Amino acid sequence: MIYLLATNNPGKAREIKPMFDMAGLTLITLADLGLHFEAREDGTTFAHNATQKARETAAFLQSAEISKDINADAIAVLADDSGLEIDALNGEPGVDSALYMGRDTPYTDKCKNLLDRLAATPENMRTARFICMLACIRPGGRPLLLAEGTIEGRIAHAASGEGGFGYDPIFYYPPHGKTLAELSQDEKNHISHRGQAIQKMIGLITSANSSTK
């Protein structure tokens, strides 16, 4: 079976694909098929948005023109919804992390805005977490597999690091003494919210595949 990652974000693809490769699972992206599709993200929870993106992308594939070498009915769709919750900001940006200050606003500007808003916030009140929810809809529309991952940390006083993407440069992870953007990809995958969710999802997929043999 082929797994399609329902995202136009190359950063997410870079994180997820190597882990699927290691598990012997084939993961492709919309870009690999020459497609672009934006599913809605108007839910109030990460689970709602991930599920919505998976279902809408699966429906889109049924009407899209794709390579004759790939059977749309044999593609399972994997969708991610993730975000940053900052306690001192009442959980913002939360499920609106991608839309915060506008989808097209550079993350450098988004990060600076959050740092400015937290400028007077003391260290012990800068707690935050990244949450990731993955949804996988298998051919035929069901069953729907869900996996979640969370990483706890705090907001740094300044952006640091060139790796990762999104809000990684301002998310400080105390056990490593670094921001997520300062970690290698392998280090990040081992401890991140998305890495946790991916490992859980791979376990669910492996179990589901075994039960259908």
Quick gist of this model?
With 213 residues, this protein is of the alpha/beta class. Helix content is 32%, strand content 23%.
Structural account:
There is one protein chain. With 213 residues, the protein is α/β, with parallel strands linked by helices. It has one domain (2-211): Alpha-Beta Complex (Maf protein). The protein has helices spanning 10-22, 46-63, 107-117, 185-191, 193-211; strands at residues 2-5, 26-29, 75-86, 127-137, 144-155, 171-173, 178-179. Strands 2-1-3-4-5-6-7 form a seven-stranded mixed β-sheet. Helix 4 (185-191) crosses helix 5. The two termini are 13 Å apart.
Question: What is the total tally of β strands?
Answer: 7
Q: Summarize the helix and strand pattern as letters.
A: EHEHEHEEEEHH
* Straight-line N-to-C gap: 13 Å
How confident is the prediction overall: mean pLDDT? 92
* CATH fold naming: Maf protein
Which strand order does the major sheet show?
2-1-3-4-5-6-7
Q: Could you say which overall geometry the principal axes of the C-alpha atoms support? A: globular
- The class by helix and strand makeup works out as alpha/beta
